[in-house]
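User: Hi! I'm working on a homework problem where we have to compare a predicted structure to a textbook description. Could you give me the structure for the chain below?
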Amino acid sequence: MKLIALALTCIAIALVAIACTETATPTNTNTSRAAATPSPSPSVDELATARANYAKNCEPCHGESGTGGLVKVENKQIKVASLKAEHAIKHTDDKLAKTITGGEEEMPAFKDKLSQQEIAQLVQFIRKEFQDK
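Assistant: Happy to help. Predicted structure tokens:
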């Protein structure tokens, strides 16, 4: 009887030792790896400030699409340049920034309304949105 008890004890210890050294495989196969991976954050609109400044300061004359045209400002009909036209595309970034800063002909100056950084961002916005640059 003692021999059988000793044999069963040895077998039990051996089974426990074998069970402890095996790696368990997950039984739930419905989980997807995509759910465990965090989704990327939405991209930030790098030109959001410039877009807002354009809407506030430029859009009333140049229009939502940047095409300009005849506009009535202070009871005066003026022809506003298109930001998509060849002449605007040929201007350097510096020329566009100077025009926004100091104004030109009937276009008002924005040096007192916008910082130099905001004007530079507006130039980038115009290039990207209206000139495909």
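For your comparison, note the following. The mean pLDDT is 82. The two ends are 92 Å apart (CA to CA). Good luck with the assignment!
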